[in-house]
Amino acid sequence: FSTSQGLETASPVLLVDGYNVCGYWAKLKKHFMNGRLNIARQRLIDELITFSMLREVKVVVVFDALMSGQPTHKENFAGIDVVFTGDACADAWIEKEVVALRDDGCPKVWFVTSDHHQQHAANGAGAFVWSSKALVSEIKASHKEVEQMLREHRSSSMQGKLLKHNLDSEVVEALKDLRDKL
C-alpha cells in the first residue's frame, strides 16, 4: 500500500501529517477543534492541490483513520494522494513511506509535522523536515505569487485590448460625435 508505485523519480514528494497541520493552521484549527474534521480535511486538501501545482511537487497527505473513523485507504484529489491509515497511526505509515520513497530513488522527500518525535524519525529515515508553520508560510507565499502573476497578466493583457486602440481614428471621432449628440 505504497504511494511510490509509478512515481516519477524526478518529482520531489511532500508527505504531510494532515491532522497536525489542521491543528496548527488557524483557519483550519477552528473546524478541527470543533470536531468538523471533514471540513478541516477538505480545506487542507484544497490548499495542497494548488500548492502541488505551483511548486511542482507530489503531495501525499496522511490522516489517522483512527480519528476519522475510516478504513485504511487511499484517494486521489486532482493529483494529490490522500491516505487514511486505519491499521497504523499516520506517524508509523509516514516513517515507512519515507524509507520506501528513498529506496525507490525519489530525489527529495519532505515531511511536514510539528511533532518533534516524528520529525526526528523522518529525518533519520532520510527526509527533509518542515514544521506545520513552515508549510503554512510556504502556502501563503505561493498565494502571493499567484496574485502577483494575475495582476501582471491583467495589466499586460489590458494594453492594446481597449476598443479605442483598435479602431480607426475616423471611427473614434464619429463615435465621439455620436456620444456628444445623445
UniProtKB/TrEMBL annotation:
PANTHER family: YACP-LIKE NYN DOMAIN PROTEIN. It holds the Pfam family NYN_YacP. It comes from the Eukaryota. It comes from Genlisea aurea. This is NYN domain-containing protein. InterPro entries: YacP-like (IPR010298).
